[in-house]
C-alpha cells in the first residue's frame, strides 16, 4: 500500500539535479534566479563541501531522510572539513535542510501547475490564504 507522501516528487528531484554547485561566502552572494540554477550553502567555500551538502539534501529529498538523519550527515560534513558555521548546530542544520526541501518542493509544484497541458485545461491560478484575520501581503 502506498502511503501519502511516500512517492518521490519527480519535478522537485529534477530541479535539484539540474543545479550547479556554487561555493559562496554569504547568504546574499547570489540573488533571485541564481538560486534556481545553483546549489549553495552560505559559508561553504569549497566545491567538495558544497557537493557533500548537496548529497545530504538529495538523500533527504529522494529517500525521505528525516531532519535527525540529515543532522548526522551535517555533523559528518562539518567534522570532515573542519567547517566553522554561523549559529547553533540545530539552527544551521535545520535551515539548510528546510530551506532546500521547501524551495525545491515549491518550485516543483510551480512546474506542475504551469505545465502547458495543465494550463490548457486550467488557464488560471487562484490564490487562497488561510483563515488568518490578518493575512500576510
Nutshell version of this structure?
With 137 residues, the chain is mainly α. The protein is built from six helices and two strands.
Describe the fold and architecture.
With 137 residues, this protein is an all-alpha fold. The protein has one domain (10-113). It has helices spanning 10-18, 33-37, 47-63, 67-81, 89-113, 116-121; strands spanning 20-21, 38-39. The protein has a two-stranded parallel ribbon. α1 packs across α5 (89-113), α3 runs antiparallel to α4 (67-81) and α4 (67-81) packs across α5 (89-113).
Jot down its keywords.
6 helices; 56% helix; mainly alpha; 137 residues; single chain; globular; two-stranded parallel sheet
Percent of residues in helices:
55-70%
Give the strand line-up of the largest sheet. 1-2
Mean pLDDT: 91
What fraction of residues sit in β-strands? under 5%
Distance N to C terminus: 41 Å
> Globular, elongated, flat, extended or rod-shaped: what is the shape?
globular
Class based on secondary structure composition and strand pairing: mainly alpha
What's the topology here?
Blueprint: H1 10-18, E1 20-21, H2 33-37, E2 38-39, H3 47-63, H4 67-81, H5 89-113, H6 116-121
Amino acid at each position: 500500500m502506498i502511503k501519502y507522501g511516500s512517492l518521490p516528487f519527480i519535478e522537485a528531484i529534477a530541479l535539484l539535479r539540474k543545479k550547479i554547485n556554487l561555493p559562496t561566502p554569504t547568504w546574499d552572494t547570489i540573488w533571485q534566479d541564481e538560486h534556481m540554477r545553483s546549489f549553495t550553502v552560505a559559508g561553504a567555500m569549497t566545491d567538495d563541501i558544497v557537493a557533500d551538502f548537496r548529497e545530504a539534501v538529495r538523500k533527504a529529498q529522494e529517500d525521505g531522510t528525516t531532519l535527525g538523519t540529515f543532522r548526522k550527515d551535517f555533523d559528518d560534513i562539518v567534522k570532515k572539513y573542519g567547517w566553522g558555521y554561523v549559529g547553533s548546530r540545530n539552527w544551521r542544520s535545520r535551515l539548510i535542510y528546510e530551506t532546500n526541501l521547501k524551495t525545491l518542493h515549491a518550485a516543483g509544484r510551480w512546474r506542475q501547475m504551469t505545465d502547458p497541458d495543465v494550463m490548457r485545461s486550467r488557464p488560471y491560478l487562484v490564490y487562497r490564504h488561510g483563515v488568518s484575520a490578518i493575512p500576510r501581503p
